[in-house]
Amino acid sequence: MKRKHRSAKSKSRRRRTEATQSALPAPLYEADVADGLEALAAEEVRRRLQPHVSMEPVALRGAVRFRFGDAPRRLFDLKTVLAVFQLHRLDVPRPRALLGDQHWRALCTAAAAIVHLHPPGAFETFYLSAAGAHTATMQRIAEGMANHLGLRRVQTPDEGHFLMRIRRPPEGSAGWDVLFRLTPRPLSARAWRVCNYPGAMNATVAHAMALLTAPHPDDIVFNPCCGSGTLLIERGLIAPAARLLGCDIEPAVLACARENALAAGLAERIEWEAWDACQTPLPEKSVDVILSDLPFGGLVGSHAENERLYPAFVQEMARIARPGARGALITHEVRLLNTVLEAQTAWRVEQVLKVTLGGLHPRIFLLRRQVW
């Protein structure tokens, strides 16, 4: 009888524990996003993570916040965000209180759980990002967390595998936020990028541009000025296409694009050609989608060259685009491209998105080929 009684009590305790756990809110996460692409990133989060996700009703620039109640590894597959952090909001008056026994043990446990999501050795270095990171309190926090995780401290965020942030809540709430990045590298650092090239496009922005063209499996997609292949590779990874074609006049750049496409598993699906983007051999009205990262005139080209390039480029793209074709162009030469587009009638500008990334403020122009 005693054994049955103990068994019943054990089951009762287990049910109470499970009920308590299910009543707890799902872990809170915050994703860094290119400023200007928050809505697109939020849509991807909702689409990929349902039914285990709930978006937080707070408007943030350059970030999307949500709760997610399933395996954190699923967050590694997000493509339109730069990085994902687990967010812990602590009701403390100042950072020194984070070193208190209860808070510190909870933070150490959460940080160690993130490390254990990855194979041994994935994290080697630690970096703390915080206002006043040089103060004695912040140094104690950084040293203590690095020691707990067995990681070497570094002085720049680019060197840090485990990235920890401490800040005031950006929306003005009380307390302090502690954030831990979920991955040793930003999600924008794609595994397929085995060949880097100066001026290479950010992969998350490229993914967003490809999505904005409403990909369809029957699309013939052309990527003039393809560089190291970022735009076309991201488009190829989203969905099938009838044809994926990129061109550039630099042989070394095309070789780099081929390496990246091979690493992405797309070597057989993408064609790379050494063509002048303003004089292609493509037939008239033969392309459904045009994606391009136009020369900004900084690392690649110059403003004087762009004044000659942009009008000829827009004219050639109008020649090869089918009626109703979609275009997504990104450039920092906003005034110049605006002037060129206003002087022609073949393309209709449907939307212009301002993006802030790495200190630059380019625009994404979404275009539609007029139907006559």
TrEMBL record:
The annotated region (Disordered) lies at 1-24
A biological process (GO) of this protein is:
tRNA methylation
Q: Where is the composition biased (Basic residues)?
A: 1-16
Offer one Pfam family short name for this entry: UPF0020
Q: Which GO terms describe its molecular function?
A: tRNA (guanine) methyltransferase activity
Transmembrane feature ranges: none
What is this protein's name? Ribosomal RNA large subunit methyltransferase K/L-like methyltransferase domain-containing protein
